[in-house]
Each structure stands twice: as C-alpha cells, then as structure tokens.
Target: Sensory histidine kinase/phosphatase NtrB
Amino acid sequence: MLAGLDLLSSAVLILDNAGRVIYANPAAEHLLESSFKALANQALDSLFLNGSDLASIFVEAVQHKFADKRLDLVLERPGRVPLHVHVIVTALDSPDTPVLIELRENVQQLKLDREERLLEQGQANKELIRNLAHEIKNPLGGIRGAAQLLELELPERHLKELREYTQVIIKEADRLQTLVDRLLAPHRRPHIVGDVNIHEVFERVRSLMMAEFPSGLSIRRDYDLSLPEFRGDKEQLIQAVLNIARNAAQSLSDRIKAGDAELVLQTRVARQVTLAKVRYRLALDLHIIDNGPGIPEDIRDRIFYPLVSGREGGSGLGLTLAQTFVQQHLGVIECASRPGCTDFRILIPLP
Model:
C-alpha cells in the first residue's frame, strides 16, 4: 500500500491513534517543505499554526463519525506562506493507523489570490504614479525656466562653456517632463469604447513590430478566427499588446542577432473564468510568447511595478501601462517565464 502512495502526486499523511505522523509520501515532503525525518512523530496540530482545525477532524475520524470528509482549508505555517488546500480525511479500519489525510493544493484559490494581488497592486500603482507625477511636474517648469533665464544672463566671454551646463539642465528637465507625461497618459486620455476585433489589434502590433525589427525576428500567428468582436478601447489595447511585444523583442536582442528570435501571437477563448471574484462564461485568452532568456528571477514578481526594468536603459513603464489598460477592460495580465520561453497572458472578459 505504502509503495503505491509514494507514487501519488497529492500529499498523503498517515497518523497513529495519538494523532502523530507515522508516514508522509514524497509529495507531502515537497508540499510541507520538510523531510519525513522532520515530520515523523509530530502531532498533527503542531504542523500548522491553526492545526487545531485538523486535529478536531482527526478526533471525529477516530470515533468513526464519518468514513471520509472533504473540506477546503488555509493552513498557516510559521515563517512560510499559507497553504490553500483541499483536504480529504479518511477513517481507516486499523487500530494502529486509524486516519489518512490527503492534501491537494487548491489551484483555483491560489489563482484568485494572485489575481486579487495584481488588481490591488494595479490600484496602488495608479495612485503612486499619479501622485508622484504631479509632485515631479510642479517644480520641473520652475527648474527649466530658471535655467533659461540664467542662460540669458551669462556673460558673453564665458557664454560657450557655461551654456553647456544650462543646456544639460534644460534637456534633463525636458526628459523628466516626457517621463511624467507618459506616467500620466492613461489617466488623462478618455476611455473610448467601440467594437473591437482582437485580430485587428494583433495585426496592427505585428506590422509595427516588423517595421521596428525588420530582420532576425519572426512573428508567428496562431489565431482562433472564431473569436467574436467585443466592446473596448482599440487604441489602448494596441498600446498594451505593443508594450508587451516590444519588451519581448528587446529581451531577444541576442537571438535577433543570431537570426532565430521568435514571437508568437496567439488568440483563444477561455471558458468559466473568474476575474476579480466575478465569474465570466467566456473571456479572451491572449498570449504573447517569446523564446528569449526569460525574466530575471529577482524581478519576476515585480515586473508590473512602475520603474522596474530588467533591461539597462529601460524606463520600467511599458508593462505597468499595459496592465493599467487591460484592467480598464476588467481584465488582467499574467506572466509565466523560464529560460527559452516567456508567456504573457491577457485575459479580458467577453459579454
């Protein structure tokens, strides 16, 4: 029996009649991030901060109040992220090993939590960007104006060498002004809604990318042409997809030089999708996939934060603005990345 349990992908614990762990399969060791040696003989309620919930169910199982019980729990662990699990507690016909507990990670709950974090992060980003941009914008005009006035007052004999410094101030002020304008752009421009064909959006982005990267980069279409039109802001969606595609192409610089860089533009429909705790029957399921080196692990969880960039000289605004535009369509952007494949997934609900 135990040999068979070792092969299961779900975590299995077997307890003795005192509620102590006497068996944990490899999946349980992986899920609980502990070896069987560390888990052995530990009381069930000591494994988790809220282990009393499981302990009370163990008592009911020992008393044969049920054959098996299923429930969803969030098991809290000291110093580690909580586990969202579907728990199956089974009463066994054995006095020495009366209870078997199976733990399955609740993938749907994890997905909901991740989407909720992305939405909260997006709202925080918008507030931060708006406030920061206004704080920067106000003194910029004064700095630039003062530099221009100072340039007019420079003595003729030193004009050439001193003008170089005032021009640095003016140009840097202009650069910051451009950055601020980009930060404020999504909040200034009205949301213009019309009928949108997502393939027209992707084809427009493809044309722009082919013009910007005429050699070394192939862009492959993988479209589901049955997708319906929907109501949205076409220009915002073009900008969102373009920002992601351009980011991907810039990460592919080495492969573009080698001539084997590839972008895949994929469109699908997803069914029964939950976004921001709202269930939708259908959603656009869009992918921009590249064969680049992958996103550095140290910034992977922060790529949608403003001013976070994995590329030297990058502004760190492209993905932030893309997420903002997609969220204005009640959608979300997710990302999965490993060396050789980065997949940005855009989900937008359909009516």
